[in-house]
Amino acid sequence: MTPPDSAPNPPIAPRPGRPGRADARRNRDKLVEAARAVFTSSGDAVPLETVAREAGVGIGTLYRHFPSREALVEAVYAAELDEVTASAPALLADRPQQPEAALRAWLDRYARFVATKRGMMATLRAGWASGRIATPATRERVTAALAGFLTAGAATGTLRSDVPPEDVTSMLLGVVLSTSAATDDPGQTARLLDLLVDALRPRG
């Protein structure tokens, strides 16, 4: 007997071996987290098979998400830059009457980010120069985060209102790029960041 036209169509089963979007996203996130841990402990020259193994996926899955080592390094860099820049509003919310203290805490966090990425920079620069990966808007995002601190500090009278955030970005990059995690004076970065914040306090 022929079923009526109003009978519902049977559901279409997913194709075997084709992970859904949620599974693909989870695998990508696991790979980025595993790469972050492995690169931090062993450097970004570690075999990609090690990253895949730590993430609990096959090497084919890694290459589906990241077709090159540069692409994986870029993803780790971007994820950590996202965390650093996103932390600025939270620090200001925790210290609404002390934006200068919030700024100083954020500067420490940014300096740690740069220090842990030193080993990746050669790979990133090669990828940027070749065009295999896009140049990130790091400077613009750092400047936007600093602008938030300066605006809040100007409102409370704890930070100068006449300093462009672009100038602060230049000073910050000068500090973090000129100091090294291997320096004989590990307190140098902290002292220079203290001087940077002191330069931003109102005079008189």
Quick structural overview:
Helix content is 67%, strand content 0%.
Name the average pLDDT.
86
Q: Can you tell me the CATH architecture of the largest domain?
A: Orthogonal Bundle
Structural class: mainly alpha
CATH class of the largest domain: Mainly Alpha
Overall number of domains: 2
Instruction: Please tally the β strands and state the result.
Output: 0
Unreliable spans: 1-17
How is the main sheet built?
A: none
Number of helices: 9
Descriptive overview:
The chain is mainly alpha-helical and 204 residues long. It has 2 domains: 21-67, Homeodomain-like (Arc Repressor Mutant, subunit A), CATH 1.10.10; 69-199, Tetracycline Repressor, domain 2, CATH 1.10.357.10. The protein contains 9 helices and no strands. It has helices at residues 21-42, 48-55, 59-65, 69-94, 99-116, 121-130, 138-156, 165-178, 188-199. The radius of gyration is 23 Å and the shape is elongated. It starts with 20 loop residues before the first helix and ends in a 5-residue tail after the last helix.
From the structure above, extract its key features.
mainly alpha, 9 helices, Tetracycline Repressor, domain 2, single chain, 204 residues
Draw up the topology in text:
Blueprint: H1 21-42, H2 48-55, H3 59-65, H4 69-94, H5 99-116, H6 121-130, H7 138-156, H8 165-178, H9 188-199
